[in-house]
Design a protein that fits this description.
Layout lengths: L11 H20 L4 H28 L6 H14 L3 H32 L7 E5 L2 E5 L9 E4 L9 E5 L2 E4 L1 H4 L5 E3 L4 E2 L4 E2 L4 E5 L7 H11 L6 H31 L5 H15 L2 H20 L2 E3 L3 H7 L1 E7 H5 L5 E7 L5 H12 L5 H11 L11 E3 L3 E5 L4 E5 L1 H6 L12 E7 L2 E9 L6 H10 L3 E5 L4 H11 L3 E3 L4 H14 L4 E6 L5 H6 L2 E5 L5 H6 L2 E3 L6 H35 L5 H20 L5
Parallel strand pairs: 11-18, 11-20, 18-19, 20-21, 21-22
Antiparallel strand pairs: 1-2, 1-3, 3-9, 4-7, 4-9, 5-6, 5-8, 10-22, 12-17, 13-14, 14-15, 15-16, 16-17
Helix pairs in contact: 1-2, 1-4, 2-3, 2-4, 3-4, 3-8, 4-9, 4-21, 7-8, 8-20, 8-21, 9-20, 9-21, 10-20, 12-13, 20-21
Bound molecules: adenosine-5'-diphosphate and magnesium ion.
Magnesium ion binds next to helix 11.
């Protein structure tokens, strides 16, 4: 019956010692047939040894005026029993209570451990190579750009880039994807992946603390710092519950003997004490945080990082899912469709001019243009290039000014050009205020996008797409994916406004936003739940988001909603189980059909059942 606050206070060994000492005191009077008045001393001794922490805790809480918890109830029951001379009962109640605490403590600890173990992402040793010599190191000792060796069967300890070798890699620890994928020299690998069959040399990209595996474990370990509504429900509940129980038990002890001559005060006083013992809401207090913990663990095994238990409710009650287009619904791998230079300009010059401005940008469009141009030549890097979110790029040097971006960017700079509508995303280029032509680029929707959207529709969730792209390109994707509502030509700030509008119009349930963080990181924070694509997404997005999808798969959106719904179902089952069983036992107690020992056993039983039920949240 540990409360959230005194979870980690005792070591198991301490609890075992305490319980055995108390038991020893308890049985000595029986073994040596000690006369009654002396044996009482042994029972009181056992009571104090077993109940010491509970009594102290209750006293401390009382001083801080936080007396409304199970320690108060247990202490009242125990002291009351001593008061009426039921020494063995008082001792046994405390011993059982403490044993229950031990058992539940152990159950919670074991379950947490098995959950973290199953997500075994951490490595203990890293093999570093330096001038042909391989040394064993702790992961914390490795620096960025160190070269590390990962042999077949080993876990990749830090995020990095393969510089030699290739291998089939099991990414399931991070993505939940059970089929291994092939990785080659030049590919980025994340800590927590397992190298199945290759010999890899990896250049480290991020130190241990910033590597993916540490970040995930960190998130999970701190996830229950955020309390959800259901947890607050328990705190609120305890505030009313404890005084109500105390009042009822007081009435139970006092009223019947007052009004019925045949009622014996001692009998009813004992019933009142039993009533208090039964009332402890321990099952709720331990099972609710554990359910959320298990839910977070279960989700992360599928490659979904949920950053706190408070997001479960918002996810489970999702009514509208808003998507960013580029990089979220689409692959974000643009390929050049066609070049349309104006007269006197060659296609190569058009492309080169665009690439000159784009090559410092990380936008998927920029990358496609730079890649197409880089074939065969190196590009100069111009640090002056300025990215204008949702519009394009401006590069100003001593010699020239280059504009690369959409129609809106051209309008803002008063450039006259060819602005007809095109099925593809259209990028216009101007140099020194002269329009050079445009490039059309193509992106495809992600393979699983259609399936993911229809699963969401099945869950009765409306889908909406927002994009900074033009209407025609957006229409094509929306038609393919069966998305009815979409809004186009939106700047990042307008995306926030649109989302606010959608949220305000919606009066049932919550609104989630799914984005890749390129030009939409602020939107992520405005949604009830912001979901970021972790693979393609930027660090800013992963920071801003409440939920991160490690492998960018859109199918994880409906899956995370189903996991949240299941976890909440389990939480409510536990609340219902605990409260209904409690009610029955409380009635039995009030009617005198329940002993104090029975009451303690019943409480431990329900708590363990609730813990077992909580663990189901881990398996999805
Ligand atoms: P989305 O909302 O679909 O994710 P963005 O907001 O990232 O799209 O971009 C919106 C539009 O702005 C793009 O379709 C493109 O026309 C233009 N744009 C943004 N960044 C760039 C860039 N680096 N180069 C060229 N065009 C850009
Ligand atoms: Mg985007």
């Amino acid at each position: 019956m540990p409360s959230i606050t005194h979870h980690h206070k005792h070591h198991n060994a301490y609890l075992i010692l305490q319980i055995s000492m108390a038991l020893l005191f308890f049985i000595i009077p029986f073994i040596f047939k000690i006369p009654q008045n002396i044996s009482s001393l042994f029972f009181i001794g056992a009571f104090i040894i077993a109940g010491k922490d509970t009594l102290l805790e209750a006293f401390k809480n009382f001083l801080q005026n936080k007396w409304m918890n199970e320690n108060t109830l247990m202490s009242l029951a125990g002291i009351g029993a001593i008061g009426i001379g039921e020494y063995p009962e008082a001792a046994m109640v405390m011993i059982l209570y403490q044993s229950g605490e031990y058992l539940q403590h152990k159950a919670v600890e074991e379950s947490r451990k098995s959950i973290t173990d199953l997500m075994d992402l951490r490595s203990d040793i890293v093999y570093k190579e330096e001038q042909g010599i391989i040394t064993n190191n702790k992961p914390e000792e490795i620096k960025v750009n160190d070269i590390i060796i990962v042999r077949s069967g080993e876990k990749i300890p830090l995020d990095g880039i393969i510089i030699e070798g290739n291998a089939a890699i099991d990414t399931s620890g991070l993505t939940g994807e059970s089929l291994p994928k092939d990785f080659f020299s030049g590919d980025e690998v994340l800590s927590g992946y397992i190298n199945i069959n290759g010999f890899l040399k990896i250049k480290v990209l991020r130190i241990y603390k910033e590597s993916t595996a540490s970040k995930i474990l960190d998130l999970i370990e701190h996830a229950d710092n955020h309390k959800s509504h259901s947890e607050r429900f328990i705190t609120r509940f305890a505030r009313y519950y404890t005084p109500i129980i105390i009042i009822i038990s007081f009435l139970l002890a006092v009223c019947p003997p007052l009004f019925f001559s045949e009622a014996v005060f001692l009998d009813w006083f004992k019933r009142a004490l039993t009533f208090i013992v039964i009332s402890c809401p321990c099952a709720l207090i331990i099972s609710i945080p554990l359910s959320f913990f298990a839910g977070i663990g279960g989700a992360s095994r599928k490659g979904i990082l949920i950053k706190g238990s408070n997001y479960f409710e918002a996810l489970a009650h999702c009514r509208i899912s808003v998507f960013d287009k580029t990089g979220t619904l689409t692959e974000g791998n643009f390929i050049i469709d066609h070049l349309y230079p104006v007269k006197d300009i060659t296609p190569t010059y058009l492309l080169q001019t665009a690439a000159k401005a784009e090559n410092t940008s990380n936008h998927p469009i920029a990358r496609s243009i730079t890649k197409a141009c880089r074939k065969g030549q190196d590009l100069n890097i111009y640090k002056q290039a300025k990215e204008i979110s949702g519009l394009g790029i401006i590069l100003r040097t001593d010699k020239e000014e280059i504009l690369v971006g959409n129609h809106e960017l051209m309008k803002r700079h008063d450039i006259k050009g060819i602005f007809n509508n095109n099925q593809n995303t259209t990028i216009h280029i101007a140099r020194n205020r002269k329009y050079l032509g445009y490039i059309t680029v193509k992106d495809k929707s992600k393979e699983e996008a259609f399936e993911a959207i229809s699963q969401l529709h099945h869950l009765n969730i409306k889908t909406i797409m927002l994009t900074g792209d033009n209407k025609e390109a957006a229409q094509a994707i929306a038609n393919q994916l069966n998305i009815k509502d979409f809004y186009t030509n939106l700047l990042p700030l307008e995306k926030i406004k649109k989302l606010e509008e959608i949220k305000n119009k919606n009066n049932k349930g919550t609104v989630i936003f799914v984005g890749d963080g390129i030009n939409d990181a602020p939107v992520l924070t405005y949604a009830d739940v912001g979901i970021a694509m972790g693979g393609l997404g930027t660090d800013a997005a992963i920071e801003a988001a409440d939920v991160v999808i490690m492998d960018d798969s859109l199918l994880k959106i409906p899956l995370s909603i189903r996991i949240a719904q299941k976890t909440l179902r389990i939480v409510w089952q536990n609340i219902f189980l605990a409260l209904s069983v409690k009610t029955i036992f409380l009635l039995l107690g009030a009617l005198g059909m329940m002993t104090m020992w029975g009451a303690v056993f019943a409480d431990v039983g329900i708590s363990l059942l609730a813990v077992l039920n909580s663990l189901r949240a881990f398996r999805n």
